[in-house]
Amino acid sequence: MGLFSRLFLFAGVCALLSACGNAPADQSSDTSKTTVNVDVGNEAALAEAYAENPELQHDSTIIARAKAAALKKAAEGNVNAHFKEIAPEEVKEKLVDKAKPVEEIVDGQKFRRVENNKTIRTRIAPQQRPEPIHNDKINSGFTASQTKTSDGKVVPITRAPHADATAPTTSDLHATWDALLKKHVSVDGRVNYSGFKANKAKLEKYLDLLAQTPPQKNWPRAKEMAYWINLYNAATIKLIVDNMPLKSIKDLDGGKVWDRKWIKVGSKVYSLNNIENDILRPKFKDARIHFAVNCAAKSCPPLWNRAWTAQNLERQLDDRARIFINNDRFNQLHGMKIRISPIFQWYAADFGDLITFLNKYAIDNIPSNVEITYQDYDWSLNGK
Protein backbone atom coordinates (compact mmCIF):
# COMPACT_ATOMS: atom_id res chain seq x y z
CA MET A 1 0.00 0.00 0.00
CA GLY A 2 1.38 3.40 -1.00
CA LEU A 3 2.03 6.27 1.34
CA PHE A 4 -0.98 8.22 0.00
CA SER A 5 -3.29 5.22 0.52
CA ARG A 6 -2.06 4.76 4.09
CA LEU A 7 -2.65 8.43 4.90
CA PHE A 8 -6.13 8.24 3.41
CA LEU A 9 -6.98 5.13 5.48
CA PHE A 10 -5.65 6.74 8.69
CA ALA A 11 -7.74 9.87 8.06
CA GLY A 12 -10.85 7.74 7.56
CA VAL A 13 -10.35 5.90 10.86
CA CYS A 14 -9.84 9.18 12.71
CA ALA A 15 -13.04 10.57 11.21
CA LEU A 16 -14.96 7.48 12.29
CA LEU A 17 -13.66 7.68 15.86
CA SER A 18 -14.51 11.36 15.99
CA ALA A 19 -18.06 10.64 14.86
CA CYS A 20 -18.46 8.00 17.58
CA GLY A 21 -17.14 10.36 20.21
CA ASN A 22 -19.66 13.03 19.17
CA ALA A 23 -22.71 10.75 19.31
CA PRO A 24 -25.97 12.45 20.31
CA ALA A 25 -26.33 12.95 24.08
CA ASP A 26 -29.57 11.00 24.27
CA GLN A 27 -27.70 7.86 23.16
CA SER A 28 -25.06 8.02 25.92
CA SER A 29 -26.97 9.46 28.86
CA ASP A 30 -30.25 7.59 28.74
CA THR A 31 -29.92 5.83 32.10
CA SER A 32 -33.42 4.45 31.89
CA LYS A 33 -32.18 1.95 29.29
CA THR A 34 -29.31 0.68 31.43
CA THR A 35 -29.41 -3.10 31.70
CA VAL A 36 -27.61 -5.12 34.36
CA ASN A 37 -27.67 -8.90 34.28
CA VAL A 38 -28.26 -9.57 37.98
CA ASP A 39 -30.64 -11.59 40.14
CA VAL A 40 -33.20 -9.04 41.36
CA GLY A 41 -33.89 -11.15 44.44
CA ASN A 42 -30.28 -11.03 45.57
CA GLU A 43 -29.64 -7.82 47.49
CA ALA A 44 -25.90 -8.41 47.68
CA ALA A 45 -25.73 -8.79 43.90
CA LEU A 46 -27.86 -5.69 43.45
CA ALA A 47 -25.56 -3.79 45.76
CA GLU A 48 -22.53 -4.90 43.76
CA ALA A 49 -24.25 -3.90 40.52
CA TYR A 50 -25.15 -0.54 41.98
CA ALA A 51 -21.59 0.06 43.18
CA GLU A 52 -20.16 -0.73 39.75
CA ASN A 53 -22.81 1.15 37.73
CA PRO A 54 -23.35 4.68 39.12
CA GLU A 55 -25.92 5.33 36.38
CA LEU A 56 -28.27 3.00 38.24
CA GLN A 57 -28.75 5.76 40.81
CA HIS A 58 -31.55 6.98 38.57
CA ASP A 59 -33.49 3.76 39.14
CA SER A 60 -35.52 4.19 42.32
CA THR A 61 -36.09 0.45 42.70
CA ILE A 62 -32.38 -0.30 42.55
CA ILE A 63 -31.69 2.50 45.02
CA ALA A 64 -34.21 1.15 47.50
CA ARG A 65 -32.76 -2.34 47.36
CA ALA A 66 -29.20 -1.03 47.45
CA LYS A 67 -29.97 0.90 50.62
CA ALA A 68 -30.93 -2.32 52.33
CA ALA A 69 -27.91 -4.10 50.91
CA ALA A 70 -25.53 -1.32 51.97
CA LEU A 71 -25.63 -2.52 55.57
CA LYS A 72 -24.60 -6.03 54.53
CA LYS A 73 -21.84 -4.72 52.29
CA ALA A 74 -20.56 -2.52 55.12
CA ALA A 75 -19.66 -5.62 57.10
CA GLU A 76 -17.35 -6.63 54.27
CA GLY A 77 -15.63 -3.25 54.17
CA ASN A 78 -16.62 -3.03 50.52
CA VAL A 79 -18.79 0.05 50.28
CA ASN A 80 -17.80 2.90 48.02
CA ALA A 81 -18.79 6.55 48.02
CA HIS A 82 -22.00 5.90 46.07
CA PHE A 83 -23.40 3.89 48.94
CA LYS A 84 -22.66 6.73 51.35
CA GLU A 85 -24.72 9.04 49.18
CA ILE A 86 -27.84 6.87 49.38
CA ALA A 87 -27.47 5.25 52.81
CA PRO A 88 -29.86 6.24 55.60
CA GLU A 89 -28.44 8.97 57.85
CA GLU A 90 -28.28 6.71 60.91
CA VAL A 91 -25.86 4.31 59.22
CA LYS A 92 -23.76 6.62 57.06
CA GLU A 93 -21.04 6.95 59.66
CA LYS A 94 -20.69 3.16 59.83
CA LEU A 95 -20.12 2.63 56.11
CA VAL A 96 -16.53 2.14 55.00
CA ASP A 97 -15.21 3.58 51.75
CA LYS A 98 -13.89 1.06 49.26
CA ALA A 99 -11.01 3.41 48.50
CA LYS A 100 -9.06 3.20 51.75
CA PRO A 101 -6.02 5.41 52.39
CA VAL A 102 -2.58 4.02 51.73
CA GLU A 103 -1.74 4.31 55.41
CA GLU A 104 -3.82 4.84 58.52
CA ILE A 105 -3.20 4.57 62.24
CA VAL A 106 -5.74 2.70 64.34
CA ASP A 107 -5.30 2.06 68.03
CA GLY A 108 -1.55 2.64 68.04
CA GLN A 109 -0.81 0.52 64.97
CA LYS A 110 -0.05 1.52 61.41
CA PHE A 111 -1.82 -0.27 58.55
CA ARG A 112 -0.49 0.00 55.00
CA ARG A 113 -2.34 -1.27 51.94
CA VAL A 114 -0.36 -3.17 49.32
CA GLU A 115 -1.14 -4.08 45.72
CA ASN A 116 -3.23 -7.17 46.52
CA ASN A 117 -5.45 -5.22 48.94
CA LYS A 118 -3.99 -6.99 51.94
CA THR A 119 -2.48 -4.99 54.76
CA ILE A 120 0.74 -5.23 56.69
CA ARG A 121 0.78 -4.15 60.31
CA THR A 122 3.71 -2.44 61.99
CA ARG A 123 3.86 -1.34 65.60
CA ILE A 124 4.60 2.31 66.30
CA ALA A 125 4.85 4.32 69.48
CA PRO A 126 1.74 3.55 71.55
CA GLN A 127 -0.95 6.19 71.65
CA GLN A 128 -3.44 6.91 74.38
CA ARG A 129 -6.37 4.51 73.96
CA PRO A 130 -9.46 6.32 72.66
CA GLU A 131 -12.59 6.19 74.75
CA PRO A 132 -15.09 3.56 73.51
CA ILE A 133 -18.42 4.68 72.12
CA HIS A 134 -21.03 1.94 72.57
CA ASN A 135 -23.96 2.03 70.19
CA ASP A 136 -26.95 -0.10 71.20
CA LYS A 137 -29.00 0.54 68.07
CA ILE A 138 -30.42 -2.37 66.12
CA ASN A 139 -27.63 -4.62 64.95
CA SER A 140 -27.85 -4.81 61.15
CA GLY A 141 -25.01 -7.17 60.35
CA PHE A 142 -21.94 -5.47 61.76
CA THR A 143 -20.39 -4.65 65.13
CA ALA A 144 -21.80 -1.47 66.61
CA SER A 145 -18.99 -0.69 69.09
CA GLN A 146 -16.73 2.09 67.83
CA THR A 147 -14.01 4.40 69.09
CA LYS A 148 -13.18 7.99 68.36
CA THR A 149 -9.50 8.79 67.74
CA SER A 150 -7.73 11.96 68.83
CA ASP A 151 -8.44 13.60 65.46
CA GLY A 152 -12.17 12.90 65.76
CA LYS A 153 -12.29 9.95 63.38
CA VAL A 154 -14.76 7.17 64.27
CA VAL A 155 -13.28 3.71 63.75
CA PRO A 156 -14.23 0.16 64.80
CA ILE A 157 -12.81 -1.11 68.09
CA THR A 158 -9.98 -3.45 67.14
CA ARG A 159 -9.54 -4.98 70.58
CA ALA A 160 -11.29 -4.49 73.89
CA PRO A 161 -9.55 -4.11 77.28
CA HIS A 162 -10.43 -6.68 79.93
CA ALA A 163 -11.90 -5.67 83.25
CA ASP A 164 -8.67 -6.84 84.85
CA ALA A 165 -5.45 -8.51 83.80
CA THR A 166 -6.57 -11.93 85.07
CA ALA A 167 -9.96 -12.02 83.31
CA PRO A 168 -10.24 -14.87 80.77
CA THR A 169 -10.23 -14.06 77.08
CA THR A 170 -13.35 -14.75 75.02
CA SER A 171 -11.93 -18.01 73.66
CA ASP A 172 -10.79 -19.15 77.12
CA LEU A 173 -14.14 -18.28 78.66
CA HIS A 174 -16.10 -20.51 76.28
CA ALA A 175 -13.46 -23.17 75.49
CA THR A 176 -15.03 -25.86 77.69
CA TRP A 177 -18.48 -25.20 76.25
CA ASP A 178 -17.11 -25.30 72.70
CA ALA A 179 -15.54 -28.72 73.33
CA LEU A 180 -18.76 -30.10 74.83
CA LEU A 181 -20.85 -28.88 71.90
CA LYS A 182 -18.50 -30.34 69.29
CA LYS A 183 -18.58 -33.67 71.11
CA HIS A 184 -22.28 -33.99 71.90
CA VAL A 185 -24.18 -32.00 69.25
CA SER A 186 -24.45 -33.07 65.60
CA VAL A 187 -24.00 -30.72 62.67
CA ASP A 188 -27.78 -30.60 62.19
CA GLY A 189 -28.37 -29.69 65.84
CA ARG A 190 -29.44 -33.01 67.39
CA VAL A 191 -28.27 -33.22 71.02
CA ASN A 192 -26.79 -36.25 72.77
CA TYR A 193 -28.13 -35.52 76.25
CA SER A 194 -26.70 -38.76 77.61
CA GLY A 195 -23.27 -37.57 76.55
CA PHE A 196 -23.81 -34.25 78.31
CA LYS A 197 -24.93 -36.14 81.42
CA ALA A 198 -21.70 -38.14 81.36
CA ASN A 199 -19.81 -34.82 81.22
CA LYS A 200 -22.09 -33.04 83.69
CA ALA A 201 -19.15 -31.94 85.85
CA LYS A 202 -17.63 -30.05 82.91
CA LEU A 203 -20.97 -28.46 82.07
CA GLU A 204 -21.41 -27.27 85.66
CA LYS A 205 -17.83 -26.01 85.74
CA TYR A 206 -18.55 -23.90 82.66
CA LEU A 207 -21.71 -22.45 84.20
CA ASP A 208 -19.74 -21.66 87.37
CA LEU A 209 -17.12 -19.86 85.26
CA LEU A 210 -19.81 -17.74 83.62
CA ALA A 211 -21.30 -16.97 87.04
CA GLN A 212 -17.90 -15.72 88.20
CA THR A 213 -17.31 -13.68 85.01
CA PRO A 214 -20.31 -11.38 84.58
CA PRO A 215 -20.30 -9.02 81.59
CA GLN A 216 -18.41 -5.77 82.16
CA LYS A 217 -19.36 -2.29 80.98
CA ASN A 218 -16.31 -2.15 78.71
CA TRP A 219 -17.13 -5.39 76.90
CA PRO A 220 -17.82 -4.93 73.18
CA ARG A 221 -21.38 -5.58 72.08
CA ALA A 222 -20.50 -8.85 70.31
CA LYS A 223 -18.69 -10.28 73.33
CA GLU A 224 -21.59 -9.59 75.68
CA MET A 225 -24.16 -10.91 73.23
CA ALA A 226 -22.17 -14.14 72.77
CA TYR A 227 -21.94 -14.51 76.57
CA TRP A 228 -25.71 -14.40 77.09
CA ILE A 229 -26.47 -16.73 74.15
CA ASN A 230 -24.00 -19.33 75.44
CA LEU A 231 -25.36 -19.01 78.98
CA TYR A 232 -28.94 -19.49 77.80
CA ASN A 233 -28.09 -22.61 75.79
CA ALA A 234 -25.86 -24.18 78.45
CA ALA A 235 -28.47 -23.56 81.15
CA THR A 236 -31.17 -25.16 78.98
CA ILE A 237 -29.08 -28.29 78.51
CA LYS A 238 -28.41 -28.50 82.25
CA LEU A 239 -32.17 -28.40 82.91
CA ILE A 240 -32.65 -31.39 80.61
CA VAL A 241 -29.66 -33.31 82.01
CA ASP A 242 -30.82 -32.76 85.60
CA ASN A 243 -34.28 -34.16 84.84
CA MET A 244 -33.60 -37.10 82.53
CA PRO A 245 -35.40 -39.10 81.29
CA LEU A 246 -37.60 -36.42 79.76
CA LYS A 247 -39.83 -36.26 76.69
CA SER A 248 -40.21 -32.48 76.53
CA ILE A 249 -38.86 -29.44 78.34
CA LYS A 250 -42.49 -28.37 78.81
CA ASP A 251 -42.92 -31.27 81.23
CA LEU A 252 -40.88 -29.27 83.77
CA ASP A 253 -42.56 -26.90 86.24
CA GLY A 254 -45.92 -27.32 84.54
CA GLY A 255 -44.59 -25.76 81.34
CA LYS A 256 -43.24 -22.71 83.18
CA VAL A 257 -39.61 -23.75 83.55
CA TRP A 258 -38.52 -20.61 81.68
CA ASP A 259 -39.64 -18.55 84.70
CA ARG A 260 -37.54 -20.49 87.23
CA LYS A 261 -34.84 -18.21 88.67
CA TRP A 262 -31.69 -20.26 89.19
CA ILE A 263 -29.00 -19.04 86.78
CA LYS A 264 -26.29 -17.15 88.66
CA VAL A 265 -24.36 -14.27 87.08
CA GLY A 266 -22.23 -12.38 89.57
CA SER A 267 -24.47 -11.36 92.46
CA LYS A 268 -27.70 -11.74 90.45
CA VAL A 269 -29.94 -14.68 89.66
CA TYR A 270 -31.83 -14.99 86.37
CA SER A 271 -34.41 -17.18 84.67
CA LEU A 272 -34.25 -18.21 81.03
CA ASN A 273 -37.01 -15.70 80.33
CA ASN A 274 -34.95 -12.97 82.01
CA ILE A 275 -32.01 -13.71 79.72
CA GLU A 276 -34.04 -13.79 76.51
CA ASN A 277 -36.76 -11.20 77.13
CA ASP A 278 -35.11 -8.79 79.58
CA ILE A 279 -31.56 -8.81 78.20
CA LEU A 280 -31.02 -10.29 74.74
CA ARG A 281 -34.08 -8.97 72.93
CA PRO A 282 -34.45 -5.47 74.38
CA LYS A 283 -30.74 -4.67 74.70
CA PHE A 284 -29.42 -5.96 71.39
CA LYS A 285 -32.57 -5.58 69.26
CA ASP A 286 -31.44 -8.22 66.78
CA ALA A 287 -34.06 -10.63 65.42
CA ARG A 288 -31.34 -13.15 64.55
CA ILE A 289 -31.13 -13.95 68.27
CA HIS A 290 -34.09 -16.28 67.75
CA PHE A 291 -31.92 -18.53 65.57
CA ALA A 292 -29.14 -18.66 68.17
CA VAL A 293 -30.90 -19.51 71.45
CA ASN A 294 -32.22 -23.04 71.74
CA CYS A 295 -35.22 -24.27 73.76
CA ALA A 296 -34.43 -28.01 73.49
CA ALA A 297 -37.41 -28.68 71.19
CA LYS A 298 -37.50 -30.28 67.74
CA SER A 299 -39.18 -27.23 66.18
CA CYS A 300 -36.65 -24.84 67.68
CA PRO A 301 -33.89 -23.52 65.39
CA PRO A 302 -31.12 -26.16 65.59
CA LEU A 303 -28.51 -25.75 68.31
CA TRP A 304 -25.18 -24.74 66.76
CA ASN A 305 -22.45 -27.22 67.72
CA ARG A 306 -19.93 -24.50 68.50
CA ALA A 307 -19.65 -21.82 71.18
CA TRP A 308 -20.52 -18.26 70.28
CA THR A 309 -17.69 -15.74 70.55
CA ALA A 310 -17.18 -12.08 69.71
CA GLN A 311 -15.15 -13.20 66.69
CA ASN A 312 -17.75 -15.49 65.08
CA LEU A 313 -20.98 -13.83 66.21
CA GLU A 314 -21.90 -11.69 63.18
CA ARG A 315 -21.06 -14.25 60.53
CA GLN A 316 -22.80 -17.08 62.38
CA LEU A 317 -25.95 -15.11 63.19
CA ASP A 318 -26.43 -14.67 59.46
CA ASP A 319 -25.55 -18.31 58.79
CA ARG A 320 -27.95 -19.65 61.43
CA ALA A 321 -30.74 -17.45 60.07
CA ARG A 322 -30.08 -18.65 56.53
CA ILE A 323 -29.93 -22.33 57.57
CA PHE A 324 -33.19 -22.18 59.53
CA ILE A 325 -35.18 -20.14 57.03
CA ASN A 326 -34.24 -22.35 54.06
CA ASN A 327 -34.84 -25.66 55.86
CA ASP A 328 -38.09 -27.19 54.59
CA ARG A 329 -38.55 -28.95 57.92
CA PHE A 330 -39.19 -25.57 59.53
CA ASN A 331 -40.34 -23.36 56.65
CA GLN A 332 -41.89 -24.10 53.26
CA LEU A 333 -41.35 -20.99 51.16
CA HIS A 334 -42.50 -22.19 47.73
CA GLY A 335 -45.44 -20.86 45.74
CA MET A 336 -47.99 -18.25 46.73
CA LYS A 337 -48.89 -19.89 50.05
CA ILE A 338 -45.97 -20.27 52.42
CA ARG A 339 -45.96 -22.22 55.69
CA ILE A 340 -43.47 -20.99 58.28
CA SER A 341 -42.39 -21.45 61.88
CA PRO A 342 -44.66 -19.92 64.56
CA ILE A 343 -41.53 -18.21 65.91
CA PHE A 344 -42.15 -15.56 63.27
CA GLN A 345 -45.65 -15.07 64.70
CA TRP A 346 -44.71 -15.15 68.39
CA TYR A 347 -41.98 -12.54 67.95
CA ALA A 348 -43.47 -10.62 65.03
CA ALA A 349 -42.39 -7.26 66.47
CA ASP A 350 -38.72 -8.32 66.33
CA PHE A 351 -38.80 -9.13 62.61
CA GLY A 352 -40.47 -5.98 61.33
CA ASP A 353 -41.74 -6.45 57.77
CA LEU A 354 -41.67 -10.25 57.69
CA ILE A 355 -41.38 -10.78 53.92
CA THR A 356 -38.54 -8.28 53.74
CA PHE A 357 -36.75 -10.08 56.56
CA LEU A 358 -37.24 -13.52 55.03
CA ASN A 359 -36.02 -12.33 51.63
CA LYS A 360 -32.69 -11.29 53.18
CA TYR A 361 -31.94 -15.00 53.66
CA ALA A 362 -34.33 -17.02 51.48
CA ILE A 363 -32.83 -18.75 48.44
CA ASP A 364 -35.85 -17.87 46.29
CA ASN A 365 -37.44 -14.44 46.37
CA ILE A 366 -40.80 -14.43 48.19
CA PRO A 367 -43.51 -12.23 46.61
CA SER A 368 -44.97 -9.59 48.92
CA ASN A 369 -48.54 -10.80 48.33
CA VAL A 370 -48.09 -14.43 49.43
CA GLU A 371 -50.49 -16.05 51.88
CA ILE A 372 -48.77 -16.89 55.19
CA THR A 373 -49.70 -19.83 57.42
CA TYR A 374 -47.89 -21.17 60.47
CA GLN A 375 -46.77 -24.68 61.33
CA ASP A 376 -47.57 -26.54 64.54
CA TYR A 377 -44.70 -26.42 67.03
CA ASP A 378 -43.19 -29.76 68.07
CA TRP A 379 -42.03 -29.51 71.68
CA SER A 380 -40.53 -33.02 71.71
CA LEU A 381 -36.94 -33.13 72.92
CA ASN A 382 -34.35 -32.40 70.21
CA GLY A 383 -32.24 -35.38 71.23
CA LYS A 384 -30.50 -37.98 69.11
Instruction: Categorize the overall geometry.
Output: globular
Ranges with pLDDT <50 over ≥5 residues?
A: 1-40, 90-150, 153-167
Compute the separation of the termini in Å.
Answer: 85 Å
The SSE order reads HHHHHHEEEEEEHHHHHEEHHEHHHE
Task: Using the CA coordinates, give the radius of gyration.
Answer: 27 Å
Task: Summarize the main sheet.
Answer: 3 strands, antiparallel
Helix proportion? 40-55%
In the sheet with the most strands, the strands line up as 1-2-3
**What's the number of helices?**
16
Mean pLDDT, to the nearest integer, reads 74
Percent of residues in β-strands: 5-15%
This entry's quaternary arrangement is single chain
By helix and strand content, what is the structural category? mainly alpha
Number of strands: 10
Description:
The protein is mainly alpha-helical and 384 residues long. Among the domains are: 36-98, no CATH class; 103-156, no CATH class; 170-319, no CATH class. Helices cover 40% and strands 9% of the residues. It contains 16 helices and ten strands. It has helices spanning 3-21, 25-28, 43-52, 60-75, 81-86, 89-92, 170-173, 175-184, 193-198, 200-212, 221-242, 272-284, 313-325, 343-346, 348-351, 354-359, and strands at residues 103-106, 109-113, 119-123, 132-133, 146-148, 154-156, 263-265, 268-270, 337-340, 371-374.
List the helices and strands and how they pair.
Blueprint: H1 3-21, H2 25-28, H3 43-52, H4 60-75, H5 81-86, H6 89-92, E1 103-106, E2 109-113, E3 119-123, E4 132-133, E5 146-148, E6 154-156, H7 170-173, H8 175-184, H9 193-198, H10 200-212, H11 221-242, E7 263-265, E8 268-270, H12 272-284, H13 313-325, E9 337-340, H14 343-346, H15 348-351, H16 354-359, E10 371-374
Parallel strand pairs: 9-10
Antiparallel strand pairs: 1-2, 2-3, 4-5, 5-6, 7-8
